[in-house]
Design a protein that fits this description.
The protein has 11 helices and 15 strands. The protein is α+β, with helices and mostly antiparallel strands. The strands form 4 sheets. It has a 6-stranded mixed sheet, with helices on one face. A 5-stranded mixed sheet has the order 4-5-6-1-13. Strands 2-3 form a two-stranded antiparallel sheet.
Length: about 450
């Protein structure tokens, strides 16, 4: 039997440092390697980024103090100051001194801060630092647009991370620690060398534990399970760029707020609703593969900031006959093998006879906002805002935010899907949820 993809990667990584103690490369998790692969295959070399946007009353953000706070954060967490690179065909992270840029974004006349930030992020340089800040000011209330909230002039701060540097579990901690460092006026120099060295060792240990878990999860039994589970899967959506978009934003969106059941909407119900959306978009036939992030830090590892998620594949059988109960049963069986790395799952499916290339026809992410802390910069509390219209990596992506209510948002690639078809699919998704959620 061939070694797992993870075992082969570990062997290459260990050879990098052999005989060279000064080689300060950090290993990459399976999720990080997948993002780097997507970047290398993208015609434009685009990176996957995770932006958070916060509106503040204009003039309340101290740029120098904010940048120092971000440098403090990067000095404490190695992944926030490590740039991905490939050394002798081996993807790794190279730690660098903390240096988080804060760019002031010029807003053109008649343009909103949201427009300007969207334009700026479209030009994200994948070779730059993994954590960056952007601050956009509206010029003289130019068009009275989205930067004004209830008549008050605002500026919008974007805290943006390369996806190789964070997963969903890291975001709340990044916001909390950035708030604390700003409040305490801390910078990179306030992190003692011994603390920085310990953080580096803890991060490396966590990644090595993650790689060990990924290697064990690629067992023959797990691979046989995924091979059979995905044997009939085949992506249905056209390739990106199939439909010309002559004007407007590269992606469309739709959203809806629904009453949330006590304890939140069960994940299998959301999966089943995504199946309904896939059926509306692709019809019946070969089973479209959908993906969702799952996972956490490996057992015994420190709770470090980083990217430890795995993308689990859900074959959304659109041929009829499936029920929420079947979806729930299948999902629980999938979770027993949810640590099997995505690249191993693709290889197992193809070995079982699937024609699936590894592309996904849709994505689902779920976020729990019930315990999320806002970004506080001194006496000002940021109001989190959403800026849509950015490029998306999948034909469609659904985000479900669990809070006092269920906030559903679907975005789609307009070069792949027509707006009308996507809007009908979103309506099918909402209609497929339990009736209790539709009372609002």
């Amino acid at each position: 039997m061939l070694p797992s993809i993870t075992a082969q990667y570990l062997a290459r990584y260990q050879r990098l440092g052999a005989g060279d103690p000064a080689a300060a490369f950090l290993p990459a998790t399976g999720a990080q390697r997948r993002f780097l692969l997507f970047r290398s295959l993208d015609p434009a070399g685009r990176a996957d980024i995770v932006p958070m946007f916060f509106a503040f009353p204009r003039g309340t953000v101290d740029p120098a103090r904010l940048r120092a706070a971000a440098d403090h954060l990067a000095a404490r967490h190695p992944v926030l100051r490590s740039r991905p690179c490939v050394v002798r065909a081996t993807p790794v992270l190279r730690p660098e001194p903390a240096g988080v840029p804060l760019d002031h974004v010029d807003v053109a006349p008649g343009e909103s801060a949201e427009d300007a930030l969207r334009r700026t992020l479209a030009g994200w340089d994948p070779q730059g630092p993994p954590l960056r800040l952007f601050l956009a000011h509206t010029a003289d209330r130019a068009a009275g647009r989205a930067t004004d909230h209830e008549g008050a002039a605002e500026e919008v701060l974007a805290v943006v991370l390369d996806h190789t540097a964070c997963d969903g579990q890291s975001l709340a901690r990044i916001v909390e620690e950035l708030s604390d460092a700003y409040r305490d006026r801390r910078g990179a120099a306030d992190v003692p060398p011994a603390e920085a060295a310990d953080a580096l060792a803890r991060y490396k240990d966590a990644v090595l534990r993650q790689l060990d878990a990924e290697d064990r999860a690629a067992s023959p039994r797990a691979l046989a399970y995924w091979g059979e589970r995905l044997r009939t899967a085949h992506e249905r959506a056209p390739l990106p760029g199939t439909r010309p978009v002559s004007a407007g934003l590269p992606s469309g969106s739709a959203e809806r707020r629904l009453a949330s059941p006590a304890g939140g909407m069960p994940f299998p119900a959301l999966l089943d609703a995504c199946r309904a959306a896939a059926t509306a978009l692709y019809g019946t036939g070969p089973v479209p593969p959908l993906g969702y992030p799952w996972g956490g830090r490996p057992a015994g590892a420190a709770e470090v900031i980083g990217c430890f998620l795995n993308t689990v594949v859900f074959p959304a059988d659109t041929r009829g006959g499936a029920s929420p109960e079947v979806t729930a049963t299948d999902w629980w069986d999938d979770l027993d093998r949810a640590d099997t790395p995505f690249d191993e799952v693709v290889r197992a499916a193809r070995a079982a006879g699937s024609a699936w290339s590894g592309r996904l026809d849709g994505l689902l992410t779920v976020d729990d906002a019930r315990n999320r802390t806002p970004l506080r910069l001194g006496s000002a509390t940021g109001r989190e805002v959403h800026i849509g219209g950015r490029q998306v990596r999948a034909p469609f992506a659904v985000s479900a935010t669990q809070g006092p209510e269920l906030h559903l948002r679907m975005v789609w690639d307009r070069t792949v899907l027509a707006d009308g078809a996507a809007e009908e699919a979103f309506a099918a998704l909402c209609d497929a949820l339990p009736a209790a959620a539709l009372a609002r």
